[in-house]
Amino acid sequence: MNDFSGRSVMVLGGSRGIGAAIVRHFTAAGAKVCFSYSGSPDAAAAVAAETGATAVKADSANRDELIAAVAATGALDIMVINAGVGIMGDPLTIDPDVVDRLIDINVRAVYFAGVEAGRQMHDNGRIIIIGSISGDRAPWPGGTAYGMSKSAVQGIGRGLARDFGARGITVNVVQPGPVDTDMNPANGPMAKMMHSGMAIKRHATADEVASLVLYLASPAAAMITGTTQTIDGGVGI
Ligand code: NDP
Fold first, then answer.
1. Taking the domains of the chain in order of start, what are their residue ranges?
2. Which atom of ligand 1 is nearest to the CA of 16?
3. Which are the contacts of 189, defined by CB distance < 8 A and separation ≥ 6?
């Protein structure tokens, strides 16, 4: 299951957190990996040096730059759309420009990158979108805009699964609960409150999420498509 030798993989947002773990897992499994970054060139260079993956600067908020970066990878076997921002705040006071940027990165970029990946992809390829449990429910206050974006990617995943299914391409959305990254540190101010609603009261590791992504990318998962796969330690069960 974990041999990806000769496979061409692109990870959007691979410089830090969950995306960097996904880059590490795929390169360790023999894949040829290209990943994008935007605001963290030093972190991206470090991941590239460590793993042998290729880092490409491409801002997911810039549609043309994003599509060009995906097109430049050529024929892909696996696309992981991970880049995202996690802005929380009172919807009555949150800056509308911040919400627009969140929509650009968390929704528009997922659509355009998914479509371009499908254009470039071999038959029997894989598209995996990193959503969130916030796509299914609103477990914490201040998550209206973020939750909207993660519900939207469920629709993108189902639609592309239908549209690309005849080519054997699967499209799935992985929905983590709390994961220990810069976005949501395990020792952050929200952590205790988040753990209180979980069956397994801890943040997941980025490696645990990456393991699920590699499973979905493997030949064993060929009949899993159009789904959401939750990995959240039992939030709100
Ligand atoms: P981090 O903030 O730790 O990392 C985010 C990654 O996305 C970085 O590599 C960053 O690259 C990249 N990124 C952000 N904006 C852009 C952009 N405009 N263009 C290109 N790349 C960009 O977050 P996580 O690893 O925690 O999150 C990854 C995904 O997982 C997101 O989609 C998030 O919503 C989702 N998620 C996270 C959870 C958590 O608890 N951590 C829970 C549920 C879902 P750079 O810094 O170079 O711009």
1. 8-231
2. 9
3. none
